Amino acid sequence: MTIVQAAVEVLKAFPNGLTIKQLYAEICRRDLYKFSAVNPMGALLPAIRRQCYGVEISKAHPIKYFEIKIVDDVVYYCNAKVANTIISDVFLVNEKQVFLIK
C-alpha cells in the first residue's frame, strides 16, 4: 500500500477531514503504511499536496484525490469521487503511476 492509498482509506471514515497530524496518527494506528523517513509527516504532507485540487506545485500529480478545507488548521479530506471507491492496485504505464479503482 502506498502513502496515498493509506490516506484515501483513512479519510473515507472522516468525511469532515483530518489535519496532517491526525491523518498520520490514524495511518499508524491502523498499520496501513510503514514510514521509513526520519520525518514521517515530512513525507506524508508532500505526497498528499501533490494530489490536492487547488495546490499548484511543480511536482503535482495529474490525478487529484484530495481537497483542502481550511478552518482553524489545514484539514485534508478525500475528494467525493474517491471517497466511496477502493484503490485496488497501483502500476506504472509509461513511467507514470496509474491507480486501478474498483
Write the layout of secondary structure elements.
Blueprint: H1 3-11, H2 20-29, H3 40-49, E1 66-70, E2 74-78, H4 80-83, E3 87-93, E4 96-101
Antiparallel strand pairs: 1-2, 3-4
Helix pairs in contact: 1-2
Give a quick summary of the entry:
It contains 4 helices and 4 strands; from the N terminus they run αααββαββ. The protein has 102 residues and is of the alpha+beta class.
What does the model show?
The chain has a two-stranded antiparallel sheet. Strands 3-4 form a two-stranded antiparallel ribbon. The chain has one domain (3-101): 2-Layer Sandwich (Nucleotidyltransferase, domain 5), CATH 3.30.420. The protein is built from 4 helices and 4 strands, in the order H-H-H-E-E-H-E-E. Helix 1 (3-11) packs across helix 2 (20-29). It has helices spanning 3-11, 20-29, 40-49, 80-83, and strands at residues 66-70, 74-78, 87-93, 96-101.
